[in-house]
Amino acid sequence: MPRKRHCNALRKVWYPETIAKCTAEAVCAVFNQDATDSVESDKYVFLQNKLDPKYRLKHYMGNEAPKEVMEAIFSLTKDNMSQLYDAVGFLGGWRDNTKLRELSAAKTHILELTDDNGKLVGFVSYRFLLISDCQPTTEVCYIYELQVNASRRSSGVGRYLMKAAEVIAKEAGAKKLMCTVLKTNNRAVAFYRNKCGFTDDESDPSSIDFEHRHDYIYYILKLDIAPLVTIQT
């Protein structure tokens, strides 16, 4: 889901893309047991595949993803989110072209998890941004989408994808993860807050304008990036 409030500050320089791509490829190699570098394997040992031995993890840039990959992640996103968008009029309601442009943008990173038949299990998409709304200019990894196939929910997939994104963001120099979550998306709000430890960001409109907090239909959440830790799946 795209952020609602951000500013690409021009006074601060940050070039995260190369290290982010390299780290994503390393994480995929460890998950898929393709890593040949022992140092690399040891560093990301906690990101080994403990979900399902038949799963595969791949990284794409939005403008380089194969057509079938883009179609699958778009379809999953639409299935999961279109009614939520329309119900509250978020961004004017669901629009196919808008979401496709977002997912296929050159700066969009995608981690795609598939099963042994190549069927999409889930994915996370994110971008690296400089945010200066209600805070000093800060390096951020903004989570645009985290979507899991309904049949694979509550199996650790979402938590794994979020931890992988956090690791990549940390290596790229991001200070925090951020995301926009609709208040009506109770499952997502609970996931981010309770399972991942997200809190209200400084730019969250409900926190800034407390008197009118009920007028806002979304939260802007953050997760300050901490030292790497192991996860339970």
Automatic annotation (TrEMBL):
CDD domains annotated for this entry? NAT_SF
- This protein's UniProt keywords: Acyltransferase, Cytoplasm, Nucleus, Transferase
Q: Which InterPro entries match?
A: Acyl_CoA_acyltransferase (IPR016181), GNAT_dom (IPR000182), NAA40 (IPR039949)
EC number(s) per UniProt?
2.3.1.257
Q: Which domain of life is it from?
A: Eukaryota
**Which residues belong to any copy of the N-acetyltransferase domain?**
71-224
PANTHER family the record matches: N-ALPHA-ACETYLTRANSFERASE 40
Protein family (similarity comment)? Belongs to the acetyltransferase family. NAA40 subfamily.
Q: Which Gene3D superfamilies match?
A: 3.40.630.30
Output this protein's name.
Answer: N-alpha-acetyltransferase 40
Compartment annotation: Cytoplasm; Nucleus
Does GTP-binding appear among the keywords? no
Query: Which is a Gene Ontology cellular component entry for this protein?
Result: cytoplasm
Upper lineage is: Eukaryota, Sar, Alveolata, Apicomplexa, Aconoidasida
Q: Name one GO molecular function term.
A: protein N-terminal-serine acetyltransferase activity
Instruction: Give the reactions, separated by semicolons, that this protein catalyses.
Output: N-terminal L-seryl-[histone H2A] + acetyl-CoA = N-terminal N(alpha)-acetyl-L-seryl-[histone H2A] + CoA + H(+); N-terminal L-seryl-[histone H4] + acetyl-CoA = N-terminal N(alpha)-acetyl-L-seryl-[histone H4] + CoA + H(+)
